[in-house]
């Protein structure tokens, strides 16, 4: 693993050092367009073959209000560290993709909140070119993690096929990114505001390996079960790490989705959440809310309709995912270290 990471770092070395005179007004506004900034902790971990876990940032910018978003981000990073991995929160700040945010950068993004851009694959070039700032979605976080050799990425839940997606064609770019970027995404399944059966069908079409952790019933974000049978089941971090390593060695060039059920004590009643989702969907339709604005609206409205229970569950499942994701990353690092030394 160390040699692979060093190779990537060497190839990207010219991107890592952002010069002091690259700020606006210096006359060098275009000097560092397209550069990537990696924190020293992440750089060192990758160079030494240590476990690194990528974290997205739209949960900070669009997932909850300040200061709860900042507190949650710090707590999730702390959990990753406690489990033996290095957290790498990813965002774009003033036109520079950043892999691993320091405390000041986390706070800056948290305070920006929804005034920051929500950055999917299609938005990357524009945000960088215009020196914008924003949180990275699942698809964008996957892209930047893959660029620098991070294998595992933890999030709350991925996007998917929206309700009535067969007629609206509203399908998250998270799904196509999983089909073409070799990153393992650890989540609580697919957001329950979406069409889970059609999402699983689309993932199959994209050739994505879908795993349910410790169950054969695919998780439904706020609820432990969706009623959809998972394509396969794994029960330990070591088993997940072996799958990831085989996917890498075979050079399949596609991602893996590991879906972890929300802890039972934080699961929201299926009937309560389904009722709230249906209400939120009707309201979104009536208000003409579509595209990238729809998911934040639905999650916020469902939280209101459930008296805050859905947000509490969201935070709990992200923390749970972070812990297991870090354990998988540590197991993967050990496998790759053993493989390189044998």
From TrEMBL:
User: Matching InterPro entries, A to Z?
Assistant: Indigdn_synthA-like, PsuG
Is Transmembrane there in the keyword field? no
Q: Which SUPFAM superfamilies does the annotation name?
A: Indigoidine synthase A-like
Example GO molecular function: pseudouridylate synthase activity
- What keywords sit in the KW lines? Glycosidase, Hydrolase, Lyase, Manganese, Metal-binding
Where does the source fall among the domains of life? Eukaryota
Output a single Gene Ontology CC term carried by this record. Answer: peroxisome
Using the record, list the residue span of the signal peptide; answer none if the entry has no such feature: none
| Protein name in the entry | Pseudouridine-5'-phosphate glycosidase, indigoidine synthase A
Q: Lineage of this protein's species?
A: Eukaryota, Viridiplantae, Streptophyta, Embryophyta, Tracheophyta
């Amino acid at each position: 693993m160390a040699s692979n990471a060093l190779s990537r770092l060497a190839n990207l070395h010219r991107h890592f050092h952002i010069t002091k005179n690259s700020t606006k007004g210096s006359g060098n506004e275009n000097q560092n367009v397209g550069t990537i900034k990696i924190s020293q902790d992440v750089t060192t971990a990758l160079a030494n073959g240590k476990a690194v876990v990528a974290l997205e940032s739209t949960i900070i910018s669009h997932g909850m209000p300040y200061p709860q978003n900042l507190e949650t981000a710090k707590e999730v990073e702390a959990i990753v560290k406690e489990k033996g991995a290095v957290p790498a929160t990813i965002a774009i700040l003033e036109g520079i993709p950043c892999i691993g945010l320091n405390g000041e950068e986390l706070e800056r993004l948290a305070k920006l909140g929804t005034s920051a851009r929500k950055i999917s694959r299609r938005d990357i070039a524009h945000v960088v070119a215009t020196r914008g700032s924003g949180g990275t979605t699942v698809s964008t976080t996957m892209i930047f993690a893959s660029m620098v050799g991070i294998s595992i990425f933890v999030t709350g839940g991925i996007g998917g096929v929206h309700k009535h997606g067969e007629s609206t064609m509203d399908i998250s770019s998270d799904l196509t990114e999983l089909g073409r970027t070799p990153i393992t995404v650890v989540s609580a399944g697919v957001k329950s505001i979406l069409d889970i059966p059609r999402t699983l069908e689309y993932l199959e079409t994209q050739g994505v390996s879908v795993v349910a952790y410790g169950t054969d019933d695919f998780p439904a974000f706020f609820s432990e079960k969706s009623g959809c049978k998972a394509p396969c089941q794994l029960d330990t971090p070591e088993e997940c790490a072996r799958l990831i390593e085989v996917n890498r060695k075979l050079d399949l060039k596609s991602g893996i989705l590991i879906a972890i059920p929300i802890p039972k004590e934080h699961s929201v009643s299926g009937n309560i959440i389904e009722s709230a989702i249906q209400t939120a969907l009707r309201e979104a339709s009536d208000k003409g809310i579509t595209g990238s604005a729809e998911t934040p609206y639905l999650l916020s409205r469902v939280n209101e309709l459930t008296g805050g229970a859905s947000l509490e569950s969201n935070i709990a499942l992200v923390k749970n995912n972070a812990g297991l994701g870090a354990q998988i990353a540590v197991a993967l690092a050990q496998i790759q270290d053993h493989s390189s030394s044998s």
